[in-house]
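Hi there, hope your week has been kind to you so far. No rush at all, and the record is pasted right below.
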Amino acid sequence: MKNIKCLVVLAISICILAAGCEQHEVNEFKTYSNVYYTLQYPSNWQDPVLNHSKVVLVSNTNKLYFSIHQMFYEGSLQDLIPEKEYEECVIDGVKGYVIENKEGDELYTFYVVPKNDMIFEFTFISQDDGDKNQETIDQLIESFEFNNFKSMSFGNWNKYSTENIEVYYPDNSNIYDEVTKWSDQRQNAFNYICEYLDVQWDQEPIKMFVFNSQEHGQQYGIQLGFAWSMFSQIYTLDIQTKGHELSHCISYHINSGRTIDSDLIEEGLATHLDMTGRDFHQLAANLLREKSFSITLLGDKFREHENAYTFGASFVKYLIDEYSLDLFKEFYAQNKYNEEESFKRFYNKDGSTLINEWIELLKTY
């Protein structure tokens, strides 16, 4: 599903696949609530499931897709509105904008509303049965209420700054008594990754929001950890590796926000630079000896593999060591070509050939 291009960074979201053409009326509702808002949804939908920045609810049919994205944003709302026709809207007393876009048989409707120092984006993607879908949309919008929150920066959370990182943490944080050490370690990781990738950082400091547990994140509608690279924001557990999410933010600026559309390459690079000092070639080789793996890391298969991140880090290291970092950066920092087209364009080989070369290398470990 597509989204408004400038908001694809979103911070936190709730996604709903709704039954837009069910044959019976829904008279009962359940409640979803986090720190920022409360929403009523039909009781015959599945219970919400967090998936990083999404809370997903699914009904028996998929005629309507609904999501709420929210993110910390201190700029002007107008800067986020594409240069196309839009109308004004009001959600829970707050004025925003509505944009519609038709693609094939799907109608995309975006509501964008500011609240405090945050932006909330509602996305509806409708397929036929427009009147019934609109009725469902109206019910969802009318049930939405903002809770009493101060900001995405968590109001009374503490803040500690290094040269390039702003760390936000609560009074009961696991890092409260060692925030200087914890933050300096991330600054050192930042310096190393920038030097390794030859990125000259001229952006605002990266904001890191540090939570104590996944349950802590769930209160804010978040499954930790992840990075919104476009806006240099990281939502993390205190025990997460020093470099992984920082690598996402830094590599985004290798070439002005252009990145290949490949989980294997993006997550492989971030894991390769997670600053744990692990030997991913040795780890991957050990896994291959222990089990008979069918390596299916290309396309949408990457995250299906239980050892995907280890294999991804080893494969990226292979590309860098065998074919040079400069070529890898050109390959990584472009978004005009998909994964397979990019392999052929930059390495003159298809992805499966490169995977086989990498596996042959691992056999020497």
